[in-house]
Input
Amino acid sequence: MSDQPRAYVAGPLFDEGERFWIEKVEQLVVAAGFVTFLPHRDNPPKDQFNVRQIFENDKRGIDTCDVVVANLNGIMTDDGTAWELGYAYANGKHLIGMHTDWRKRFDHEVVNLMLECSLHRMVHSLEELQAALAEFRAAH
Output
């Protein structure tokens, strides 16, 4: 890992609230000393002609990162975020899930067990995310 580790910041981006939140998370990740890939910032606006380009850019962002920080809020985890986590897990990336949503999905799990069991850490606040990133930096 270089002096500045790389983080892929994943999560739904379909409305202003989701983008506001993921940008707040991304700012915290940058402040923790990471270079970030943020899909809606680091891709062109999506249209019918560039979906493959966006897919390849996102995949490359995961390929070159050290850690994935994923927003898992919502009634169901965003399907794109779930794919990104699965791909990152299969490629040995360090995964941090962030769940600040108070709605209960399952009796004994925060999110789907396949996602939850793939995470290295689940955090429930920005403060916990900051601590998890510091722990990752100290260990690597």
